[in-house]
Prior knowledge:
The protein is of the alpha/beta class and 138 residues long. The protein contains 6 helices and 7 strands, in the order αββαββαβαββαα.
Amino acid sequence: MSTAREIMTPDAECARAEETVLEAAEKMARLDVGSLPICGSDDRLQGMLTDRDIVVKVLAAGREPKACQVGEFAQGKPVTIGADDDAREILRTMASHKVRRLPVIDGHTLVGMVALADVARALPDAPVGDLLDALTSD
Length: 138
């Protein structure tokens, strides 16, 4: 069975905790992604920032993207997958946490991201369909 390392998109870029939300949004646009891992000055993963976070928690709340730091949105322990975990663990983790993107870590180092699209390309239709059901059900 495939591992996260084989399925992932390597070399994920982080949004630094001290960056502004505007800088992170510009990075998302440049990379054409909908989320960025949030990393601290020690390069450890602190959370995830999504395009939805920017819209709901910044813009719709009337906050100024230039005045908000990305680190404000690093809440709780981020959901991750180990680089050598197999595809069954990726599916289980995505389904149980209802997430479409998982940072891939090797030790404490971010090495890539596994997105739902990566899983869909790498795995047979049946497990991917089950994951989609889990992600879209209440």
